[in-house]
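Example record

One chain of 948 residues, shown exactly as stored in the release files.
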Amino acid sequence: MSRSVRAICLGGMTLSMGAAFAQDAAQPLQRVEVTGSRIRQVDLETAQPIQIMTQEQIQKTGLITVGDVLNQLSSAGSPDFSKGGSLTSNRENGGQYINLRNLGSNRLLVLVDGKRWTQSVDGFTDMSTVPASMIDRIEVLKDGASSIYGSDAIAGVVNIILKKRIDGGNLSVYVGQNSEGDGKSKDFSLTMGANSDKVSLMFGLSHTEQGVVWANKRPVTGFPRGPKYPTEGFGAGPWGEILPLDFSWDKVLNHTGGALGDGTGADSRNPANYHDWDGRPEDNFNSASQMMFAMPTKLDTLFTKGTVELPYNMTFTTTAMYSQRKSVSQVAGYPLQSESQPDFPVYIDKDNWYNPYGNWVQGAGNGQDLYFIRRTIEQPRVTENQNRTLHIDATLAGEFELRSLPWNWSVGYNHSALRGSLLGTGNVNLLNLKKALGPSFRNASGVVQCGTPDSPIALAECRPWDILGGPSASNPEVIKYVMATGQATYGSTINSATADIAGEVFTLPAGAIGIAAGVERREVRGYDLPGQFEQSGYSTDLAGNPTRGRYTVREAYAELNVPLLKGVPFADLLSVNLATRHSDYSNFGVTNNSKASFMWKPIKDLLIRGTWAEGFRAPSVGDTFGGGQQTFDDYLDPCDSLYGQTSDPTVAQRCAAAGAGAGFRQESQTGPITSAAGDQSPYPFMAGAGNAALTPETAITKTAGFVYSPSYVPGLTVGLDWFNVKITNQITEITATDVAEYCYVQGLAPYCSVIKRDPLSGQIISLARGNANIGALETEGLDLSIGYRLPRTQYGQFGIRSETAYVDKLRDQATAGADWTNYEGQYFYNRVKSNLSLDWSMGNWSATWTSRYHSGVKDRCYKVNAEECSNIGGEASWGKNYNKLGSVTYTDLSVGYKTAWNGQVMVGVNNLFDKSPRLITTSAASSSRVDADYPIDRFFYVRYNQSF
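Predicted structure tokens for this chain:
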């Protein structure tokens, strides 16, 4: 093995292959397949930058899921789906996804033992479904690899390598929690294996839990806009608010108590018991009081793997795994209003007994229907997402020699299936609501009954509701009558058959020419079916249309590795690698993608490498066949005269032409927005509609770098790689804020066409955001890796590992020819992320000290003043004004001890110095301004491993 690779192995570095490959010098070196190439090689150095994490390193992080571990990589961006996204309505919510280089989780290909893993209908791979206890190592290829693996390998490839054999068994138990006593996490795993000369069997089961963190348990998360603004960001209140149908006045019920709905309402039938609506905090509701800050999950996994050696140098291997994940989200009770579903409005009937301006109170013929607003805090909205993953693969592989040169082949079948179901409570059945707020009267027994005295409706069929009386007037039977239970099912299936062959065709003076080739046929099916009642639009649950679709793809690839020079002056090694892949999709046609890379060692200690690669991402089933779903988006209208971009005369002119002229204010559920954070729309928008005309995204990836292992400093390895990825024909589902800004700030007509404003108020009452091939996305930067295994001392063995990512460019282009918008250095998009670890071991003891550094970022100004806006007038992607947030560093510590009975105890603290969370304005958790994907406080854990 080359000296530089040995240094990497000894140092525990992640520049190339890890210590799992280190072999005794007396053993023959084996040819192995490295992620990013199908050609087996003895020399493990590659032309592509690869980062490795071993099982030992995974356990030292104190994290229990693959997703959490990989999201801490320096090259990983902010997750697409936050742990705090309890208001997120997609099927991925509750899973864990890796956003490599901030290019999107669906542009990262996830493999397990080199085989594609399950994907959702929208093309996302939930990393939490892979049991961490069965992992030998994780290889992260930070390079485009579509020519080798096909679609999705644009940002890179994560290849999870499972253990190949286990002798005996291992039991591992883990518990951890935040210093405040919440976020309790548990992990239990049992793995066992038995082996003979010809047969190897493995079995594993695991149970993992990540506990809930409630927003109301801490002051920093207990208020939607933070403790400094304890009355801002509230949602619609639980006390009856009424308006005539011409909106000529606006009143709300008198009540005691504050913004938690904990008071008592006055008699709702008396018009004198109402006051004019003025937005006072006690008439609204602190929705954070009922919301989860971080959602809980549970994962159970069964795993088996078997290998049988057959005659003629053949091996049969099969793997089967079943995982079941359950996640739960809770948000505040529904902010109900007469037009919660605009196509099915519900008003308080003029003949309703509880209508203070109805015929029963005002006198026959004098009543009027009322528009109402009222949050149903009696029953928070809870969604339970059950996700089941099944993976089965079988591979027959063999080796042979041709002209005394080694060859290998394999044929395999891969089946991955994902099935899921959602069950939601806390939404309202509008059909029953219409009856409950329809005509009603007090019968002879003094009981309020639906219908009229001449045509009564039995209480068993209808329950009248004093909706304006608030929670204190609620009847549990009435709440049960008007509430709805929502359902949905979803799933996807990937079946693929593969055949591969690789070997050495002949030998040159510099080494053997290696080739690999293969074919694959893959079928992808998916569906997402909201319940029939939700599809009908008669529920306040987000109405959606069904998604069904399938496509097939036939592919063939070829790879060639040519060693050009070896052992000559200025070329201890020089080789090139070429690869190409032809893909034929049933839904859009043909795409071809190629790659070229080189390795050059001018001297033994220095490896210089580079790649140029074409990549692509095929439209997912959801991209093409998505039915679309309603969503109440948080957004900022650029036409808002206080927090928008109307200081720009061009923007002001466009807004005025659209009906949002001078003095226009964006309205939330409770009145005008109060900050540049925007607020939730009171009207349902439409998101996620598919587009059958979509074609693949295309990408060009370029990398260049070096790995230096100086012979005069044994154990030291330094690597530096430059990367540039440019994606064109981008398949984009953009946010509501993006749509509005593209229309009014950039003046792009296609986006204006999907926005509808109310002709009187100017408010956006309809907005559609779906998928289209538009614009481009580009990122560029550097990855720096340093590893140093120090000479052993009387104080133990020390090692240093460091991974740093620097982003020089991250920008997108809304449409071809439009101006580029830069995001690097803004919130979510740190210019620098760096992880530094110091490892120590001595005898049975070991310890790891890790620092995680994130550079400062620009954030939106919550208020445009000196205290909340450090750079008034400063430029950012959203326009003028930004607030600079300083850098943050988190420190973790773990200590381990190996017992005399083959056990190991590990204790640790993450966020050792209890770094306080910071408040941000750019979208964070659903409940507060704190980002749920950063530590909320100090986290303690202990793990015990027992081998037997």
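Notes: The longest strand covers residues 483-508.
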